Amino acid sequence: MDIGGINPVILVASLMVAAVPIMLAALGELVVEKSGVLNLGVEGMMIVGAICGFMAAVGTGSPVLGFLAGAVGGAALSLIFAFLTQVVLANQVATGLALTMFGLGLSSLMGQGYNGIKPPLTGKVPFGPLSDIPVVGPILFNHDWMVYASIALVAAVWWVLRSTRLGLIVRAVGESHDAAHALGYKVNRIRLACIAFGGAMAGLGGAYVSLVRVPQWVDGITAGAGWIALAIVVFASWRPWRVLIGAYLFGGITVLQLNLQAAGSAIPVEYLSMSPYLVTIIVLVIMSSGKGRASLNAPAALGQNFHAAR
Amino acid sequence: MLRRTLLTSAAAGFGLALAGAAAAGEPMDKVKACFVYVGPIGDGGWTYQHHDGALQVQAAYGDKVELQWQESVPDGADAERVLTQMALGGCNIIFTTSFGYMDATNAVAAKFPNVMFEHATGFKRDHPNVSTYNARFYEGRAVQGTIAGRMTKSNKIGYIASFPIPEVIMGINSYYLHAKKVNPDVEVSVVWAYTWFDPAKEADAAKALIDQGVDVIAAHTDSTAPLAEAAKTPGVIGFGQASDMAEYKDGPRVSSIIDNWGPYYVKRVGALLDGSYEQIDAWEGIAGGEVLIGEITDAVPADVKAEAEALRDAIAAGTYHPFTGPINKQDGSAWLADGQTAPDGDLLGMGFYVEGINGDIPQ
Hints:
The complex is a heterodimer of chains A (310) and B (363). Chain A is an all-alpha fold. Chain A contains 13 helices and no strands. Chain A has helices at residues 8-34, 42-60, 63-87, 92-110, 136-140, 145-163, 165-175, 177-182, 187-213, 225-235, 240-262, 269-288, 293-296. Chain B has 363 residues and is an alpha/beta fold. Chain B folds into 2 domains: 2-135 and 261-284, Response regulator (Rossmann fold, 3-Layer(aba) Sandwich), CATH 3.40.50.2300; 137-251 and 291-348, Rossmann fold. In chain B, the strands form 3 sheets. A 6-stranded parallel β-sheet of chain B has the order 2-1-3-4-5-11, with helices on both faces. A 6-stranded mixed β-sheet of chain B has the order 7-6-8-9-10-12, with helices on both faces. In chain B, strands 13-14 form a two-stranded antiparallel ribbon.
């Protein structure tokens, strides 16, 4: 059963948990970028979501309210970005970077006095005897409900973007805001809504870090997860199911390299640590070779502000 | 280029003027003490303890000391910039509290000869105004290893290591040697996290160890995340690292190593105030009060607790050195002969595992 001293079942089960925060954040950012906005503030929104979720969960004793508060916190922070980029038309890259720094500082301020407190436990979904099935049980039926919710959200985003009118509008705004505007869609309002959705998802991801993965609050708890989420969006070439794959890959490699070490493997850890990023670069090179931006699938209006001149 | 040279010399001159009174031998009325931290103060571990030490300085000297600190300063170029800014900003003494600041500290110290620099856990003192200070954490690791060896049921103990530097390797060796001494069947698994502070990764590292059957976890990283992860699995115990981490007393934390920097900081700033300041290379341990062993909880049987405390007291009294021969290196070659204790130089440059540890130290 064990490969190189590592039990693959336990590995898969733990990488599914490790991938949840980056998957949620990347999914939100995917929608934001699909609408033509580049929000580099994912890390900031995640960490504000992490502290908001933590405070609410500790205050009310309910993890569900904690996750809700995390989403609201992330969305609230993203509205600052939305105001700056959609209303006063500030540069998106600079504003996004500023949002990350602001979020890190704000979360640190809000988190004063929350060090060393333990949040209420997020329960596992009771599958009863199902979770005792060998191999399948630990992988599929032995997680907390956020793991399932995150996969459901991937499916929902995929379906909405692909098959609904709403998805079409979002994509239209991201591909050509002038055309969408000419058709009578309120480009900036739609983008604002997408940004808020992205913020909420990043907040959820952050709350998962502080409530489930690390279960505690420390400053800087997300430790760069937001940047990985940004990389995953590119890696996934703006497709929801590939976000899931990307998150499992990135999350999996982190878990795998630690497991390999614990099992005493001889593979140098540095190679594994850098492999997700290498893969991202390779994917970018492959995708951008030949047919250019179209094959890269990047939204055509990504990063461009829209001002209705007429 | 000329402009840059001009600026640098102006900067140096400014620093000189501001810090002129800091020249050794002259008492000072007021000292501005500055601290550079590698993580956030709220990490609950390493940086938290350094900041606690800084606050003790303030408490000891009141108005005569002005504190300044900066959190989460990465190693490398950023550190140099922060240090230069502090030196220009009138700091009389700057404590750089992470191994990674070593070169930056020495580089900036060369430019500001009248500002005193104190680098934690390093070994470079290129200039007369650079002192180094460290604590003998391996003494605490010996106590932890004893508890770990006695408490493990799977005979697998784990160590979450940060970076492959002598201080960490020393800790692993001491931990293993003392676990082995009380439990010859014990094996240690080492996971290199390559970070001082990344709670999610630290938690993952703890989880990876637990998945491998490890039931006693010691961490050399700064946050409380490994303990939080250990708390999820019944029967797994761990130790507080750098700080007491007493909030996990009801759970996995059975003891801890507490870095107590306060007395050293108070002494050094005091020396600057009364004019007796000199360059030193300080390395105190349990005896000097820099390393404290946190309360051993009731989860540990009384006899094990007594054994661990006896070891602690023997180290404090100077009758026992955690690295006492015979000890062989991992490859089987002799390191210490019977009864010989490790010279400090060997410890500070330690780049090898002792015999019995599996795996390689990453290069």
